[in-house]
Specification:
The chain is an alpha/beta fold. It has helices spanning 3-14, 31-44, 70-82, 110-120, 130-134, 149-152, 163-178, 190-202, 232-253, 259-271, 335-346, 353-366, 374-382, 414-424, 427-440, 453-457, 471-484, 492-508, 530-545; strands spanning 26-28, 59-64, 85-90, 124-126, 182-186, 208-212, 276-284, 298-307, 310-319, 325-328, 349-351, 386-389, 399-402, 405-406, 446-449, 463-468, 521-524. A six-stranded parallel beta sheet has the order 1-4-3-2-5-6, with helices on both faces. It has a five-stranded parallel beta sheet with strand order 11-15-10-16-17. A three-stranded antiparallel beta sheet has the order 7-8-9, with helices on one face. The radius of gyration is 25 Å and the shape is globular. The termini are far apart.
Length: 546
């Protein structure tokens, strides 16, 4: 550890370890120290009973091997937005390097990494030694995680024997040490991402893997710690790697979906650059990594190539589906009304996510399950099947079936409305319904709204809208609605205060907080009619399908 960073770490320790985002980052080199810090921090956070927490209790982890660049920083920034406490690990993991690979050559720049973490608002950096993480240096064997062989053999696994076992092992160790709620990984390392998603699923790890977009330089080259090895000429030649993927994308956009023509388009670009030595160009399923004869509905086109002594990888996701329209935004912005009209005009399915939560609540009440018995409710929702059918006429409710029973009217009952918030706040309910929502949207062609539809449920939605309005405008609309219903006893000031408090709770709640996705288009509706908002969203959809 460099002396300058050591002094910073000592200074943070002298301050008592009570700094959070906005203070100095702490640098830990031992598992014991980090665990003590995290344990003390968690004890200091107040517990809440309603799922809301002004600071949020989430811990986000960004695992890295150091030599931080803009790709890492994009992960850190997203973790910073979504979590109260952010931990970045910096560890060049020997288990994932073969004897012939560049373990000794891999770039290490702890001072620069520390400064970047400080600037990005990281709370803690974990930079352990090999001995601290794996035990004595003389120890010959470690218990390792072995992912499914079908995921180890293709792509990078064929040339990097033992690599992904080492990756899975170190990541699982980090999960056990840090106990994060969310962990952030880039889509550039697509095989790693798929294997870690499978590990979390198979080993029941209580952490959400958050995939983040590949960050590219202006010339299209995916940012990587290994890019610094390239000479200026090699750097220019390496841009053909992304160029090959773009060539295949162009063919795909013209309707080519089968394997060989897509691979041929990519190969032609790479083979035109003499200094590039392709290791593989493959089309696989993005989650199972199995080879695909054709894209239906999604395929991962991946490439690995050497430029001199430097090995680079890249990929693109190709989707053969109608676009998904995800509409996020604060309460009272008109999301549901707009989403229904957009779906009706475009003849898409309106996925009424609120109706799904009401259907589960109805089932809980119908089976006389105590609303606070989360274990029983978790099993109840896991065994349930919800079907939604779009109405034939605008203004009619979505038909809702649960376990082959039509509950369209029953879910509107007062007793359901009184319990739905408590049921919807339970993590197991949300996890299962999000899974069902994603299943509905696997082939696209849906419109759905909520406070985190574009950030969590469908982060890969083709059209993301953040629909909003000022507190004053939303209060005025709410007051008009109440007056139409004959309720005249609430002042505009009272309604504004209620909306302000709702916004605060929605944006700081521990589960699914309100956030604007980085790639969402914001539509401020104060001066717009519903028809104008619908027209704008329909235009955006049509641009995606041209």
């Amino acid at each position: 550890m460099p002396a300058r960073s050591t002094k910073r770490r000592e200074f943070c320790t002298l301050l008592g370890g009570d700094l959070h985002h906005g203070g100095l980052v702490r640098w830990f080199t031992s598992t014991v120290e980090l665990r003590q810090f995290l344990s003390r921090d968690r004890r200091a956070q107040p517990s809440t009973d309603d799922g809301h927490d002004a600071k949020s209790r989430r811990v986000g982890l960004v695992p890295t091997m150091g030599a931080l660049h803009e790709g890492h920083l994009s992960l850190i920034r997203r973790a910073r937005r979504e979590n109260r406490l952010v931990v970045v690990s910096i560890f060049v993991n020997p288990l994932q390097f073969a004897p012939s690979e560049d373990l000794g050559r891999y770039p290490r720049q702890p001072d620069a990494d520390f400064d970047l973490c400080q600037q990005a608002g990281v709370d803690a950096v974990f930079a352990p030694s090999v001995e601290d993480l794996y035990g004595s240096a003389e120890q010959a064997q470690f218990t390792q995680v072995t992912p499914p062989l079908t995921m180890l053999k293709p792509l990078c696994g064929a040339a990097r024997l033992g690599h992904f076992e080492g990756v899975a092992t170190v990541v699982l160790k980090l999960f056990n040490i840090v106990s994060p709620q969310r962990a952030y990984f880039g889509r550039k390392d697509a095989q790693q991402l798929a294997i870690l998603q499978r590990m979390v699923q198979d080993l029941s790890c209580p952490v959400t893997i958050v995939p983040c977009p590949t960050v590219r330089a202006a010339d299209g080259l995916a940012v990587s710690s290994r890019n610094q090895y390239l000479t200026p000429q090699q750097r220019q030649d390496a841009t053909a790697i992304y160029g090959s993927l773009q060539a295949a994308e162009q063919q795909f956009s013209r309707g080519v979906k089968t394997r060989e023509p897509l691979l041929a388009a990519a190969r032609a670009v790479v083979e035109a650059v003499a200094s590039l030595e392709p290791e593989y160009i493959e089309l696989v399923h993005p989650r199972t990594l199995e080879p695909l004869p054709e894209i239906n509905p999604t395929g991962l086109l991946a490439i690995a190539a050497r430029v001199g002594d430097t090995r680079l990888i890249d990929n693109v996701l190709l989707r053969d589906r109608r676009p998904v329209i995800a509409i996020d935004g604060p309460a009272g912005a008109g999301k549901s009304t707009v989403a229904r009209r957009v779906a009706h005009q475009l003849e898409l399915l309106y996925l009424d996510t609120g109706a799904m939560y009401r259907a589960v609540t109805w089932l809980v009440l119908e089976t006389n399950t105590p609303p606070d018995d989360e274990a029983v409710i978790a099993e109840l929702v896991r065994q349930s099947t919800i079907r939604l059918l779009s109405p034939q006429e605008l203004g009619q409710p979505t038909q809702v079936w649960i376990n082959n029973q039509d509950v369209t009217r029953d879910i509107r009952l007062t007793r359901v409305a009184e319990q739905v918030s408590a049921i919807a706040a339970q993590p197991a309910v949300r996890q299962e319904l999000v899974k069902q929502q994603q299943y509905y949207g696997r082939d696209g062609g849906i419109v759905l709204d909520g406070r985190d539809i574009g950030t969590h449920v469908f982060p890969d939605a083709e059209v993301k809208i953040f629909l909003t309005a000022s507190v004053q405008e939303r209060a005025r609309r709410r007051q008009a609605d109440l007056q139409r219903q004959g309720q005249l006893n609430l002042s505009l000031e009272d309604i504004e205060q209620s909306i302000y408090q709702r916004d605060r709770k929605d944006s700081t709640r521990a589960i699914a907080p309100l956030r604007k996705a980085a790639d969402a288009i914001e539509i401020q509706t104060d001066a717009l009619s519903i028809d104008q908002v619908v027209e704008a969203i329909v235009d955006l959809y049509c641009q995606q399908t041209e």
